[in-house]
Each structure stands twice: as C-alpha cells, then as structure tokens.
Inverse folding.
DNA sequence: GTGGTCTAGACCACA
DNA sequence: GTGGTCTAGACCACA
C-alpha cells in the first residue's frame, strides 16, 4: 500500500517560522527595536538547521520587518506602521486560504457570503470600540 | 532557551487523519459501501500506531460516517446525504476558524466582509454550473 | 481439551465500570457537580490501566453524563434530568437482556407475561410511596 | 483511596459453572446418557481447582441432573423431562434477577409491566409454532 | 485475516 | 497535579 504523507498543509518550515515571528510582532510580544535571537539560538529554539534559521531572518529582512547590524545581530524594525501592515497582510493571507478551502469544497460566492453572515450573526465579532453610537 | 514546538497547528494526528478521510469522501475518492483500509493497513499508510488508527476509525464510526463488521472490516456508510452533510459541516468548521483568526488579529464584522468581498472579486470563486444566464 | 473462559458475561471491563458509575449516579452516591476521581485514582481503584480508565471517562463524557475541564478533572453533569434518564435507559437495557435470555430458552410472549406476573405476585415489588390509598 | 472490587455479580464460581452446564443441556449440546468430563478434565477446562469442580458435579448430582457410576464417571440423567425442568427453573431464576434489578432502580409493578409490554411489542418474541390460527 | 480490548509507559498542554 | 495523545505490543472473538 502506498504511504500517504501528511500535509502539515505543506508550507515549508522556514515560512512557518516567519509567520510565527510575525504573529509575535502583531501580538506585541516582540516590539520595534527588540533584538532577535541569534541564528544559532533561533535554530535551537525551533529545532531546525542554522541554514534554515538564516533563511528565516533573511526573508524577514527582505520584507523590511527586521534589520541587521553587522557583528551585533538582528532587530525588529521601528516602523510605527509595522503592526498595522503585518495585520493587513496576515488577514489577506488567511482570507485567501479560507476562500480556497471553501472553493475546494465546491461552494460558490453566494454560499460563502451566507456562511460568513451566519457565523458573524452567531457570535459578536465586532471589534470593541468601533460600534456605532447607541 | 525554551524549546518551541512547531505547530502542525496543534491538532492531534488522529483528528488530522479523520479530516483527511472526510475529504476523501467529499471529493468522491471514497464512496458509500467502499471498504476502508484495515486498521493495520491504515496504520502503515499514515505511519501511525494501530491504536491511533483504530481511534480514527472509531471516531468516524461514532459520527456515523463508516461502520464496522467484526472480522470483516470497516465500510463507508451508504447514506445518500453523506457527502452533502460532510460538506456542510466542513464548511462550517473552516468558516468558524477563519472568523476566529481574523478576530484574533483585531478585525470587526465590517472589515471581515470587506476582506471577503475583495477576495471574492479578485478571483473567480463561483462554483461552475451555478452562474446565472448572461 | 479446549480452555473455556468464564464469562464475566463477556462484557469488556471498561463498560462494566461505565455501568458501575451510572449505578452510583442513579443511587445518588454521585451527584451533579461532584468531582470524579482522577484518571489515575480511578485506575488504581478499579485496578485497571489509566488508559482503560480514560476510556471509561471518555465514554461517559460522550454520553453527556460527565464533562472534563483540562488540568482540573472530570465532573458529573448538572442536568436535573440526569438521574431520570439514566434510570430509564438502564431499565430498558435490563429488560432487553431479560427478554433475550427468555427467548433463548425458547419462551414466547405469553409465557414471559406469566413468569413476570408470578414473580410480581410472589414478592412486593411495588415502589414505596406510589401505592393507591387504602 | 479504597479499592473497589468488581462484582462479576458476586456469584460463586462453582455456581457459574453449574449454570453453564445446565445451559449446555438446555441447548442440547449435552444430552441424556452423555458422559461428563472427569473432575480433572473439567477443572482444567474451567481453570479452577479440582475441589471446585468436584463441588460442581456434586451439586448437579444432588439436583438429579447427573448421576455417578463408581469408577466410571458422571453421566447426564436420562429423564425425558430434564430439559423442560431445567428450562423452567432457569426462566424463573432469570425473571427473579430481572425484577430485582428493576426494583433496585426504583421501579414498581406497573412500570415493570409497561417495560415488558413495550419490549415485547418491539420485536417478535413469540415462540415459533405457538402462534394463533391465521 | 479483521476488529476490539487491555496493559505499560512516555510526553504534552494547561492550571 | 490533571486530562489528552501516542507508541509498542499482547491477546481475544469472530469469520
């Protein structure tokens, strides 16, 4: 019998770590100016090869999320809009995956809207402080 | 430094396999009346312990998706609405997770709708054969 | 000569324990909201493996009779109709087994009724407090 | 914590074996005139002490179900009514236990009758060949 | 063979 | 601590 490989959803490890670090910034547990763990520390923490960790930091630097100071290390960028930008791009990524999954199940736009409205109706997903006046 | 375990998203393996099998039924690669792989075969295929595979099949049986005949094997139920029911419940699960993720990012209902509409507009997510006439 | 295994009546241990716990709830020695013994304590008390005890508690949870709070323990559900429901389902189970046994002995409906009436007449099986006034 | 002993329903082993042998006679797998296994064989088969097996055969002899011929062994009695008598006494025993269990659950005579009628109605428990004329 | 039960023992997340 | 998951491996009944 054929061996079925399980898909962790297939995302390469280095991108999973990238996302994990972005989540840490969005949640505020990592802030502008904070020093990142060194390649060696990060590799140990995530149990990956140092090369993989290097790739992670390189990708984050390429996206302008962190920057390096030679001989010192990597630091989180001090851009005041960093969190907002990360939030937006994560939201877009999550939404794209959501629509891809529903499409794979054979649903169309109308059914997607219906599902979203039903779920929105069930719980209060309104962001606090943005509700209309009483 | 603490070791961070990477997150397969944390879902237990047995539930991932359960979902995988449901997907096979939704996609039609597994049909009503089909014999499931035996506990031992499935365990080998998914590279898990037979106990874990048994748990998977037990869970599917509990949900009425498959049934077992002792000494013979497990079979997919022949309920004509099985695929429709699975599709619905999977869609609901995916939608709930989607809204939970966006809420965690701090988005409200209006922003969710906007994201969905933008993504729906971007690509053609209409189910083939369900579009209105021109 | 073949070794005959004696029959605990063949019921798996985990189901015997499940029934035992239901009896404790029906009899009132276990009440809504009560904390159940932990998996490890129960395993020791019933002299079974923790896995088996976990299966017992899992089955009771699946039936809605108890619920678990991670890191805290299992508790008896606080459903006001719990005892009545358990009593009914146990009575039905006992009755089904009774009729199956008599049928296996070759008895028909008329003979079953006769046996029941004879036995009811012999002893006082009337529930206390439900008899008519003198 | 106190150790809970499980009850196999408490019946002594020798009586369980006695019942088992009676069932074999009722079912016809043991017939009038058949030779019983020797004490030593029976002890091995049921995995009990020879003393226990001796007690079993003694009890069956006392009830007139088997008889012994010195130096030869035990044989099933050739009484033409043996099966009918065994059937009746087993039916009475089963019925008594049934009523005891329902009484323990707090049910009265009316509820017992209702349960029996409901269960009799559900399946066809009529003995074949005893149904009324068409 | 196939499913079903059980023990032994490890490791994890959560509180 | 407590529940939850998983592996390893044994033994059983049923067909």
């Amino acid at each position: 019998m054929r061996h079925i490989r399980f898909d962790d959803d297939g995302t390469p490890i280095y991108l999973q770590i990238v996302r994990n670090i972005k989540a840490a910034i969005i949640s505020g547990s990592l802030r502008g100016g904070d020093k990142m763990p060194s390649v060696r520390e990060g590799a140990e923490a995530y149990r990956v090869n140092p090369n993989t960790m290097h790739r992670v930091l390189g990708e984050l630097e390429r996206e302008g999320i962190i920057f390096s100071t030679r001989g010192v290390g990597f630091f989180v960028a001090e851009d005041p809009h960093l969190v907002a930008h990360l939030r937006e791009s994560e939201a877009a990524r999550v939404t794209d995956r959501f629509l891809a999954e529903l499409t794979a199940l054979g649903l169309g736009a109308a059914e997607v809207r219906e599902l979203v409205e039903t779920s929105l109706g069930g719980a209060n997903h309104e962001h606090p402080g943005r509700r209309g006046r009483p």
About this structure: The first helix of chain D runs from residue 13 to 26. The CA atoms of residues 43 and 50 of chain D lie 5 Å apart. Chains D and A do not touch (no CB pair under 8 Å). DSSP finds five helices and two strands in chain D.
